[in-house]
Amino acid sequence: MTQQEDQQEELAERRAAVAELGAAVRALTDAAVVSEVDDATLRSVAAAVAELVPSLTAARRERHERPATDPPGSGHRWYNPVIGAGNPMAPPVHVELVDGRAVGTCVLGLAYEGPRGYVHGGISALLLDQILGHAHGASGRPGMTISLSLRYRGPVPLNTPLRITGWLGESDPGRPSDADDHGDDRQPSHAIGTISTADEPDSVLVEARGKFIVPNRKQVQRIFGGEDFAR
Ligand SMILES: CCCCCCCC/C=C\CCCCCCCC(=O)SCCNC(=O)CCNC(=O)[C@H](O)C(C)(C)COP(=O)(O)OP(=O)(O)OC[C@H]1O[C@@H](n2cnc3c(N)ncnc32)[C@H](O)[C@@H]1OP(=O)(O)O
Fold this sequence. Notes:
Residues 166-202 are annotated as: Disordered. It is found in: Cell projection, Ruffle membrane; Cytoplasm; Membrane. By secondary structure, the protein is of the alpha+beta class. The protein folds into two domains: 3-57, no CATH class; 94-224, Thiol Ester Dehydrase, Chain A. Helix content is 33%, strand content 20%. The chain has helices spanning 3-34, 39-57, 121-137, 217-224; strands at 94-98, 101-107, 144-152, 161-168, 189-197, 206-213. The chain has a six-stranded antiparallel beta sheet with strand order 1-2-4-5-6-3, with helices on one face. A hairpin with an 8-residue loop joins strand 5 and strand 6 (206-213). The longest helix has 32 residues, at 3-34. The two termini are 27 Å apart. The structure holds ligand 3VV. Residues 75, 77, 129-130, 133-134, 137, 142, 144-146, 184, 186-188, 213-216, 219, 223, 229-230 line the site of ligand 3VV.
């Protein structure tokens, strides 16, 4: 095996282990929010879970440090709170690009509840921000959200397969392209997204409009310390 194949195998192993833990803790979170067992059982589970923490934090990363799952250039985000298999907070949403559109699918359990039986509006905003980000990134230039507005048209049901779609709209027509010495065109992109159930994809429950920019070199330096933020 070449050294590169060795590294690929190691990375795949790491990602599989990370996804395994993510799924197990996600299941624990779901169990914690649906559980109606007696208080003594809740307390004994709490104590058992607390005992597990030090075995994970024995080797830890800090803010700005890359996890082993996301080597430079991979563009991966295994702990992303929406799509990351390693993040128990993430449903996770599975995203595919279909004809230039980003299409996400997921089922949200009771951990994401807002109105009883339905998804919290902030969670809908989180999913749409992500999917708009994918629609923008599909153009080859991943960016950052500078504005996001939502219209909640109908309640989004929990425990129901959902479909989240994002695509790019027209850019600001009147805005001059004042390309500066950092080489960006400083034209925010407009992205549009919707959430519906998988069964009724044409019935829009939430609609989002967002603007994205590609940070220029100075901004990347200021915010991310110069590292290519999207890779
Ligand atoms: C991020 C991860 C990427 C991972 C990629 C992986 C690959 C997979 C692909 C895809 C999936 C990705 C999915 C991610 C989805 C999640 C996205 C998020 O949640 S992003 C976090 C929330 N957003 C922020 O935190 C921005 C916070 N805002 C700022 O930091 C500043 O406002 C900033 C840097 C954007 C501009 O600040 P100044 O001080 O440099 O510039 P000023 O003076 O304020 O701007 C003047 C005008 O010029 C525009 N402008 C500034 N910079 C621009 C630029 N680079 N391009 C175009 N216009 C720009 C501004 O919008 C403003 O316009 P006006 O007055 O509002 O109309």
